[in-house]
Structure formats: C-alpha cells, structure tokens
Fold this protein.
Amino acid sequence: MVLNSIWSFQKISGMPRVAAIEFPMGRAFGDVGDTQLHRDILLATLDVFKQAKLPGWVEHLPFKWPHPVDETTWLPDPPPPYLEIIRESIDDIVARIQERSVKKP
C-alpha cells in the first residue's frame, strides 16, 4: 500500500495498492502544520488499505490541493535525483514491466 501523487507510475511499476492524491511531490499530506488535513488523509489512506482487495487497486482520494495551480511548485527545485534516473531509463523500465506481464499465466 502506498500513498502517492504519481500513481500512474506506481501502477505500472507494480505497486500492489495505491491511494492516489493529486498533491505536489513530497507533500502527499498537504502543507506543513495542517494537522487536520494530515489526519484526514491518513485516515482515508488507511480506509483504502482496508478496502483494497486486489493487486493493482488504485483509489483516488477526494482531496484537492488548496492553492491555485499556477502558484504551486509541483516539484522541488532542483528535482530529486530519482527523477533523473526515471527519465533516463523509463523506456527500459516500461519494457521490463511489459515483459513481466506477458510471462504471467
């Protein structure tokens, strides 16, 4: 089970169950200090954990980022190093995932 803002990548990479949230990377629980929102997101994520019965389950949480999109920094500056690794090897990653899914009975 993972709470993640890049749920589409998590799904193709094989995460078994995803609570998806459309918040900026590194801020899946919202702004620092917003303890009520942190609690609400945690409880919603745990609820997905209870309900998700099948591998590949993706549940989109109902929370909306509270700031205007054009005023939001969606990625840290500079971006985290793992993003560069993903960019450099995304074709290989997708090919390996597709190869694995073909081999399944």
